[in-house]
Specification:
Chain B: InterPro entries: ETF_a/b_N, ETF_b, ETF_beta_N, Rossmann-like_a/b/a_fold. The complex is a heterodimer of chains A (about 325) and B (about 250). With about 325 residues, chain A is of the alpha/beta class. Chain A is built from eight helices and 15 strands. Chain A folds into two domains: about 1-165, HUPs (Rossmann fold), CATH 3.40.50; about 190-310, TPP-binding domain (Rossmann fold, 3-Layer(aba) Sandwich), CATH 3.40.50. Chain B has helices at about 35-55, 70-80, 95-105, 125-135, 185-195, 230-240; strands at about 1-5, 10, 20, 25, 35, 55-65, 80-85, 110-115, 140-150, 150-160, 160-170, 170-175, 200, 210-215, 225. The chains are: A alpha/beta (about 325), B alpha/beta (about 250). Strand 10 of chain A pairs antiparallel with strand 11 (about 160-170) of chain B.
């Protein structure tokens, strides 16, 4: 099978890009990557280590313009005879994959969490993670977008060739006016470890203890909806149904009671630790490990315990 | 300004999720259907705010059967001027988007708004599909939308930050949290909704591209393991040795 994987990476190869290539390799076939973004050729070539045979790159395409990216991928799909196109289910994919589905009349499965089963059906989460479904595609060409952190990238090959590719995308109709990204933060959708807190922290001045724990763990920080709405923390840290949906390996929630809308955005986490003064907090029902206690006392103790653990050889 | 807002029905957030017919059908028993919150709170309300500021007309559209008229009347009660129901069961996103695009093609809208996704299928597909079918620019997951003449300025949450973009109308936008505040319909709106025009349109001949074959529920979680708040070393050891996440 000819598989085309689309990746968009600026500065470095995103983990989600490696996941998408490794996912295609697991399905099996000849894998061509079509890439946009500013990552240099040498770095793109390392995608061969995850299973890519070749990388086609067009750095002239603006990823904010879904029409441009769609034209590029459609052209690459035609030139490689792609029967399957794989995306990571990120902001760009959410704009481009549906367009490509219409352009190619190719069925789209969004948010896959596993490779296709023996019948070619793909597992996805539905009802905001409260259930799952198996989806089949009726068209000859298929498109799958993979939910980040659903598939572990593994190295097994060697570097591959990188070729310039003219996507014939034309001029962009979307103008980027401003981009604001705070430096040094771990992007939430890619984070394997997340420390989150809610109104139980009582005020933004107390977030230092959340950041301290996140720092020693190498984790991203997050918050519940009320905290973002009040303005204690920026909106891009809000995890939950209306915020960012995340699937980290570890989600530590302090001072969050666990409303159903919050759970809907974090229930894909592999392990959940809940710290709350209220033993009846509903979040404990979804947790793997629970600590009934005051976050103001527990978080510093946990930070010290992690520091001690990190300083001991294992 | 002619605005089209696409709405979908979804089970209330607190609905019990279960399946019937050998896990092939969603069990609707006891389920209360609502307007998909992203469609209602963000797309519809922002559309209304723009209409109130700039003038014009706001039409809502859904693909669904006669039972879906309850959610249409709710959207009319919130303030939409008129409604269109494409008389068909929404089979998949491609089918739904194509039906909406067919209607939009012959009715010339300046702005088409949807929610960022539905809370039942979470696919984020319909808006982009409509945009491609109409060959229009598309901005996904916008958290702010302002219109100045024929230019739209939007904010989007990107990984770890915010991006501001501009595009010319006509345009398709999917809306996320931040766009607007929820509006509760008042009695006057509810009364007015009863007499607002609701046009029923026959569906176009469209084949769906995907199908849900089967559903299931996640395995029940094992009971939470409680840790003494004074023994965080134990928690760290469990996260390392048992859960293997640090």
């Amino acid at each position: 099978m000819n598989i085309l994987v689309y990746i968009n990476s600026s500065n470095h190869l995103a983990k989600s890009a490696l996941e998408a290539v490794a996912y295609a390799k697991k399905i099996g076939g000849t894998i061509t990557v079509v890439a946009t973004g500013s990552v240099d050729d040498a770095t793109l070539g390392t995608l061969g280590e995850y299973g890519a045979q070749k990388v086609l790159v067009d750095r002239s395409v603006s990823t904010e313009d879904s029409q441009q990216v769609t034209r590029l991928i459609a052209k690459a799909a035609e030139s490689t005879g792609a029967e399957l196109i794989v995306f990571s289910h990120d902001l760009v994919a959410k704009a481009v994959a549906p367009r490509l589905s219409v352009r190619l009349k190719a069925g789209l499965i969004s948010g896959a969490v596993d490779v296709p089963n023996a019948n070619g059906q793909v597992k996805v989460n539905v009802f905001s993670g409260k259930a799952f479904g198996f989806v089949s595609v009726k068209s000859a060409t298929k498109i799958i977008s993979l939910l980040p952190n659903s598939f572990q990238p593994e190295k097994s090959g060697s570097a591959c060739a990188v070729e310039a590719f003219d996507g014939g995308a034309g001029a962009s109709v979307i103008k980027v006016v401003e981009t604001k990204i705070p430096e040094g933060e771990i992007p939430l959708p890619e984070a394997e470890l997340v420390v989150s807190a809610g109104r139980g922290l009582k005020g933004p001045e107390n977030w230092g203890m959340v950041e301290d724990l996140a720092k020693v763990l190498g984790a991203a920080t997050a918050c519940s909806r009320p905290v973002a709405d009040i303005g204690w923390r920026p909106h891009h840290e809000h995890v939950g149904q209306t915020g960012v949906a995340i699937r980290p390996n570890l989600y530590i929630a302090a001072g969050i009671s666990g409303a159903i809308q919050h759970l809907a955005g974090v229930n894909g986490s592999k392990v959940i630790v809940v710290i709350n003064t209220d033993p009846e907090a509903p979040f404990f029902k979804a947790a793997d490990y629970g600590v009934v206690g005051d976050a103001f006392e527990v978080l510093p103790k946990l930070t010290e315990a992690v520091k001690k653990f990190r300083s001991t050889p294992h | 300004m002619k605005i089209l807002v696409c709405i979908s029905k979804s089970p209330d957030t607190t609905s019990k999720i279960a399946f019937t017919d050998g896990n092939k059908q969603f069990d609707e028993n006891g389920v209360q259907y609502i307007v998909n919150p992203y469609d209602e709170w963000y797309a519809l309300v922002r559309g209304l705010e723009l209409k109130e500021t700039l003038g014009g007309n706001l039409t809502i559209i859904t693909v669904g059967n006669v039972a879906d008229e309850a959610i249409i009347r709710k959207a009319l009660a919130i303030g939409a001027d008129d409604a269109v129901r494409i008389d068909a069961d929404p089979k998949d996103a491609y089918y739904t988007a194509t039906q909406i695009a067919e209607y939009a093609k012959s009715n010339g809208f300046d702005l088409i708004l949807t929610g960022k996704e539905t809370i039942n299928y979470n696919g984020s597909q319909v808006a982009g599909m409509i945009a491609e079918a109409l060959d229009l620019p598309f901005v996904s997951l916008a958290t702010k939308l302002e219109i100045n003449g024929t230019t739209a300025r939007m904010e989007q949450e990107i990984v770890g930050g915010i991006q501001v973009v501009e595009a010319n109308l006509p345009l398709v936008v999917s809306c996320a949290k931040g766009m607007a505040e929820q509006r509760i319909p008042n009695m006057r709106g509810i009364m007015a909704a009863r007499t607002k025009p609701l046009t029923v349109v026959a569906p176009a001949a469209v084949e769906e591209l995907t199908a849900y074959v089967e559903y299931g529920l996640p395995a029940a979680k094992s009971a939470v393991k409680m840790i003494d708040p004074n023994n965080m070393d134990e928690l760290v050891a469990l996260l390392h040795n048992e859960a293997k996440v640090i």
